[in-house]
Amino acid sequence: MHYAKIASKLREKIIQFSGELSPGWPKVVRRFLAESLYGIQARQSVRLTEVARALEEKIPLRKTQYRLCRQLGRWGLWSKLTHSLLRMGSSRVQEKTLLVMDISDVAKRYAQKMEYMARVWDGSEGAVAHGYWTCHVVGAEVGEMALTPLYSRLFSQRGPDFRSENAEICKAISLVSKSTQKGGI
After folding, report:
1. Given a cut of 80, is residue 114 above it in pLDDT?
2. pLDDT at 1 over 70
3. Distance from C-alpha of 165 to C-alpha of 173, rounded to nearest angstrom
4. 28-53 b/e with 16+ CB inside 10 Å = b?
5. Which pLDDT value is given to residue 49?
6. Which of 99, 79, 102 is nearest to 29 (CA)?
């Protein structure tokens, strides 16, 4: 196998996808998205250290981490990404597409200083743990294996913008419904 060719084609596809995801955005944001997607795919991890290692830059690793962290904290990034993902994914939603919502948790068993960490029910362990709640919506066609991601949000009861779990669910339904023009089931 020609791993260099495969890696090159993968990087091209990621750059193409990140370009479609971020039209009209500043160059640094588009670069951040492409590098993040590549790093996550290459290292199979969402940890910034691993993403930075995958980029193999000729500067110190901590400088790369700092740059990625700064871009990740950019104001309005989640909102813009959510709207772009909805725009891209909603075109694949048909009249009979199943829209599936999943309320789940991310347990952070060993974390001690993560901001707004709250108590969640860890379904995997069957016990209360520290972590965050998640809300995901995907589209699925009956008889097909492919899923279309439409919405994803991580939230905490301790976060400053948290009102209630019902409000988070209603927000997801409202955004997806508006974007898909009430298509799907």
Report:
1. yes
2. no
3. 12
4. ebbbbbbbbbbbbebbeeeebeebbb
5. 92
6. 79
The backbone torsions φ and ψ at residue 157, rounded to the nearest 5 degrees and listed phi first, read -65, -20
* pLDDT given at position 175: 93
CB of 130 closer than 8 Å to CB of 109: yes
45: tokens are 């991890």
In this prediction, residue 7 carries a pLDDT of 75
Domain segments of the chain: what residues?
Answer: 3-72, 77-179
Distance of alpha carbon 92 from alpha carbon 84, whole angstroms: 14
Euclidean distance between CA atoms 120 and 96, whole angstroms? 34
Please tell me whether residue 107 adopts helix, strand or coil conformation: strand
Exposed, middle or buried, 137 (CB in 10 Å: 0-12/13-18/19+)? Answer: buried
Could you tell me the pTM of the whole model? 0.82
Is there a contact between 111 and 117 (Cβ–Cβ < 8 Å)? yes
If you write DSSP's letter for every residue of 31-59 in order, what string do you get? HHHHHHHHHHHHHT---HHHHHHHHT-SS
For the segment 15-26, what is each residue's pLDDT rounded down to a tens digit? 888 888 888 888
